[in-house]
Amino acid sequence: MSFQLGSSLLDACVLAVLAKEDAYGYSLTQQVREIMDISESTLYPVLRRLQKKEFLTTYDRPFQGRNRRYYRITDSGMEKLQELRSEWVEHKQKIESVLLGGINGE
């Protein structure tokens, strides 16, 4: 079974991966794919949006005669990640109460 994942959860996953270490696009896609089914064509607009909101910055590093664009989480990105983590815990508890315990938690 596959659940539809919203953009906020995708943002949280991308930010969480980048909170561990900087990553270039393909590497980042592979790491996020371990969590959810996503293509590079889906991920790059997310990265641009997060960059526009100043949650990410980029820098280039040479690799085999070409430049690789790396993404780095900013301080405001870390703050957003903390906010999204808190929201996730609350949301997860509500979903689990319904799926695992019924509406009244029984």
From TrEMBL:
It holds the Pfam family PadR. Residues 14-83 form the Transcription regulator PadR N-terminal domain. InterPro entries: Metal_resp_DNA-bind_regulator (IPR052509), Tscrpt_reg_PadR_N (IPR005149), WH-like_DNA-bd_sf (IPR036388), WH_DNA-bd_sf (IPR036390). This is PadR family transcriptional regulator. It comes from Metabacillus halosaccharovorans. The lineage of its organism: Bacteria, Bacillati, Bacillota, Bacilli, Bacillales.
